[in-house]
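Cont'd.
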Amino acid sequence: MPSTAAPAALRTVTRRATRGDAYGYAEVVTFPVVGMVGGGQLARMTHEAGIPLGIRFRLLSGTPQDSAALAVRDVVVGDHNDLATLRDFARGCDVITFDHEHVPTEHLRALEADGIPVRPGPDALVHAQDKGVMRARLDSLGVGCPRHRIVRDPADVAAFAAEVADADGAGADGAAQDAGFPVPVVLKTVRGGYDGKGVWVVRTAAEAAVPFKAGVPVLAEEKVDFARELAACVVRSPHGQAVAYPVVESVQVGGVCDTVIAPAPGLPDDEAVQAQEMALRIAQELGVVGHMAVELFETPDGRVLVNELAMRPHNSGHWTQDGAVTSQFANHLRAVLDLPLGDPRPRARWTVMANVLGGDYPDMYSAYRHCMARDPQLKIHMYGKDVKPGRKVGHVNTYGDDLADVRERAAHAAGYLRGTITE
Amino acid sequence: MPSTAAPAALRTVTRRATRGDAYGYAEVVTFPVVGMVGGGQLARMTHEAGIPLGIRFRLLSGTPQDSAALAVRDVVVGDHNDLATLRDFARGCDVITFDHEHVPTEHLRALEADGIPVRPGPDALVHAQDKGVMRARLDSLGVGCPRHRIVRDPADVAAFAAEVADADGAGADGAAQDAGFPVPVVLKTVRGGYDGKGVWVVRTAAEAAVPFKAGVPVLAEEKVDFARELAACVVRSPHGQAVAYPVVESVQVGGVCDTVIAPAPGLPDDEAVQAQEMALRIAQELGVVGHMAVELFETPDGRVLVNELAMRPHNSGHWTQDGAVTSQFANHLRAVLDLPLGDPRPRARWTVMANVLGGDYPDMYSAYRHCMARDPQLKIHMYGKDVKPGRKVGHVNTYGDDLADVRERAAHAAGYLRGTITE
Ligand SMILES: Nc1ncnc2c1ncn2[C@@H]1O[C@H](COP(=O)(O)OP(=O)(O)O)[C@@H](O)[C@H]1O
Ligand SMILES: Nc1ncnc2c1ncn2[C@@H]1O[C@H](COP(=O)(O)OP(=O)(O)O)[C@@H](O)[C@H]1O
Ligand SMILES: [Mg+2]
Ligand SMILES: [Mg+2]
């Protein structure tokens, strides 16, 4: 119960610095309110991480039934595309951060002009919102990327394919390919994609026509023949403190993250350190605040190329909830509040995360019970979402000394929950 | 967003088993709603543990500003002593459990009669509510306890003291003690106490008069000259699965838990196993469901005597949040839902919990920032409560291989947050 003796402005959990003259203190700085835009699972898990931190968490959610909205006390239901809604929401907050990249850049600038700290700020966030802006900036920093170009029509794509083939010495071969491009090209809408939506691999002018239909600028990239995908995750605070998590391997199935292995098996130390340093450098150059995932392609000859940037908690960091001293969610909150960051080091030799996708059966509760019985060490993270085929509805984490065992346990649980393993 | 195509009864997150004829399934068992009575920090941390489990958490809180109420979506504000309020609250829940022991036993029986699962049930819970009932039952089970008796007045206490002294052969010595009792006696109100409130050590008839003033029955106990206090925590589910956490040492200062060390340093294996077996046996005999802490006295000659029982998450189990594979909070939820229990084993060689008590300074935010900077591995758990001198407002957990270091880090952070260490 609130103290009746203390003046209201001195209650521990109030926002904003206040004067505490009654006690003779010059200034009392109190526990802040973090506002997160977006009601998905990332916000849900950020709230979970914020409870022990003692901060207040405020949510702007599209509906009252969104994943995070089911678990948070202070929920504003509204549209993140509407500036008036955002302003109303921000009034109760000490800082604004994000569950997704979809808030229009100009709205973020308006909030900043209102004096609300927006973290990451619009100048950083735009590199996670717009793949064209991101590529241009990484080029200027000399960071290795797939060859790329903004394209306007299928003819542009064909020209780009020819150039790539030329540079790779693959021209002759490709020209024989049945009036198709000499090499396949990856096309991406620069904004709005996720989980592979907004990404196409095209081999002909006809196929290349599809992405342009959305009316969004399109980025063409060489199709990298990568050995595997990695992710380097870092967290940076406004005053410049930064930490790097171990580099992980991220296994995608059908454009969706399926499994993450921490640390990436067999990755040479110097390659790992290079990837971490690169991620830290990008965070600094772009002025990132909070968690950033740098999605990477590892080439067969051991180089890394940047695929894309995400400036928020990210699927490739879910393993940290059970596998690191400080989770990505806790560190994201600490960063946006400019608090000292927590130790990012792993707690186990190996940690594996496997996403739980919805299957054909709308209920998971019996499968969930079975998984708990089979593996008492399993860490299940459900998002409270309706099951729809292919939708991310949860994930599991496993950890231990034996990678094969740790992988098997994660894959089994995720498969069983989805219904693809019945045992 | 909720699917508009699926009938409402089939949404994953709804309560109760429902028929799903539209999909042709015989029955869909869905994620349940757990109702917790009491808005304190134990409910707050249980909610935190329930988020990844995907369950819905409903809270009955005395005020909208209670520790848990600040973090939970679904809060009913009301009085747990009022049966109509409890009934209203329970209507939305699949099971009812507790943050404290203060709900009247007859109300719990009424809820059970309404068909609501109450876990732990009233027949078990009464042993944590009433120290007299608890002592009588442990006697009948042959479990070692301090000598004790229900007393009606100071004369009764004097007679009890004489008997204890006699049995200990301390009579002659004590009789010389200035018209006082030959040995000190511990008096406890049988109901309503916590954190040492409701416990007195008395040496004279005048002192012994005080506890009777509350009008509650009083239990007299010999004052055990213990070497230290231990706690054996177990979790049991309705179908009888049970797990035991490592036995911990609990250091009390002024009747309040100050530090918990897991596992209890230097405790011989056979003594630890005996204590665990005793706790498991008590849980079974009493039909406990959920987490139970058995508070113990270790005598100088290596026996253990039961001090009291708590049937809910307990301060001596807070270390499990960061130090065990499955926390007491997650396992309490799994137990009350009759889900398979999680692994109780420790993740680190040593884990230390230190309570953060309020100091004279009403704000903790700057101290909190300092502690994070000093120790990036520190795990802080704040309860969102107003600071009042001596009030439990949070705790910290530390872990590692070197006990002295782990203890120092926990003690430093707790002392710094309280303001007793300024460095
Ligand atoms: N240039 C590329 N070469 C090869 N594969 C690619 C390329 N770009 C994307 N991909 C594949 O498509 C996936 C999704 O692409 P990405 O740009 O990360 O889109 P999203 O924003 O949907 O995550 C990547 O994880 C990778 O598997
Ligand atoms: N019989 C006893 N002998 C010695 N110390 C005792 C005895 N009973 C209680 N104490 C001390 O008082 C503390 C609080 O007593 P307890 O019965 O656990 O009350 P509470 O319900 O407030 O926790 C114990 O942790 C112990 O330190
Ligand atoms: Mg991607
Ligand atoms: Mg006690």
